[in-house]
User: Fold this.
Amino acid sequence: MDSDTPAEEEIQDISVNDPGLLSLKNAMSNYQNFDNLTFSLTDGIPTMLVGPGDVNHICSFIKNDPTIDGQMLLCMAGVDYEDYAQIVYIIYSLNNNETLVIKSNLNYDQSIDSVANIWAAANWYEREIHDLYGILFDGNEDMSPLLLYEGFEGYPGRKDYPFYEYDEF
Amino acid sequence: MIHDNNGQTVDMMLNMGPQHPSTHGVFRMELRIDGEKIIDVTPHIGYLHRGSEKLSEGEQYHQVVTLFDRLDYLANFNNEFIYCRAVEKLLDIEVSERTEYVRVILSELNRIASHLLYVGTIGLDAGAMTPALYSFIGRDRIQTLFESISGARMMHNYFKIGGLREDVPADFVSSVNKIIPLIKRDIDETEKLLTFNEIFLSRTKGIGVINKEAAIDFGLTGPCLRGSGVSYDVRKTEPYSIYNQFEFDIPIGLDGDCWDRHWVRVQEMHESLRIVEQAINKLPQGSVESPLGRRLIRPPKGEVYVKAENPRGEIGIYLISDGTDKPYRLKVRPPSFCNLSALQVMLKDAWIADSVVILGSLDIVLGEVDR
Assistant:
């Protein structure tokens, strides 16, 4: 943990030459808002950072694109970075055996596009993230609580939810 | 059925409530029925939500293994395996070969135990009580072996980050070699009662069909996806640990109905036995001590995503570390969560009696769905 800056430069050098990332950049060059995308690697998996309003466009692009062929939504995770939240989509292509990660940062008062019309698996994931983090998804009609009971106050996933106290039920 | 004045029928809402012998745990299905036919289903989960992901943010890395034991409480070793792999990837340490072999052998035996319980309960769901009694004989053999290794029949807390808690007992190889033919006989005896039984065939053939495209769209994995004809097994596509050294096949189904999923699980038990036979003969000597010793671990900042093949499907862990001794975010991708979200499609136009069999064929564990 000595000096972060040289290590970061090294990591960026590696990611520039990574074959998976290069082929993803190539395939995404057909997308119209290519300049708004940021590419990186998450644990060796090609990653794209997109804005919250672009998520639906990008996901339908990668689902229909024959080279990327994002068939299966494996996982959607919500992460709380205190000032902002991040939604992570992990997408897998069965035909190419390739994984792809899409990340999107947003503030808690913003809402993000829903991808439930692209992959049916996203429906329950979005309900779970809404339960635990309080993030709204535009376009998903059913936002009723999935894991928590109706009338639960607070968002337990966030870092400012009290950890060692308990509530009388 | 409820009639109003004109003799027209009205839909009824029936609650297959959280307390029900056939819902495999605390799971509520709100059915809209017209007579015996199901028109719509609204699944309600969350009765077993214990906040495991949030709790793991307050526990040190070594302590989180016990939380993972209890997620999918029928596949304890498989869950511990993937968690230990995730942290080892973050720390970038290698485990000894003996550890790898023991982990694989125990995980595959746990897969057999979990599928044996599935065979017993699908018999109960279809109305046959005898397979459940036979399948638990085989399960008991495996759990007694587990007890001699880790001290507990379930919830072992045996895999440690970097190794195992202690070495296997001296008679491990001979015990496993002794029970392999006995388990083979138990599997055959149990599934012979059901698989080609005429009554079971008529209760499961053509029921709960889900085709390939819908299965992929819903994110189904494991036997549910393989029953629909997609040959996807993480142990073959992205082999982890030492799975690339063993020979085993992937059974797939043709139609995507309940019987195909049952058949895939029965064949998987035989394939797991093949893996155990190959592994136990090659078990190397060595130490299973973790290179970390008993130190507190503070993994470097970073993120990992690992996948594994659990008995119920593909499990994934997305682990973010911020350099402290507790995880920053630990997200589990539970296989049963996605399998269960496909219930609405499978229960379209089914009879109420079929809903029990379909739910049984998905083989869900509520501890994993709710976390």
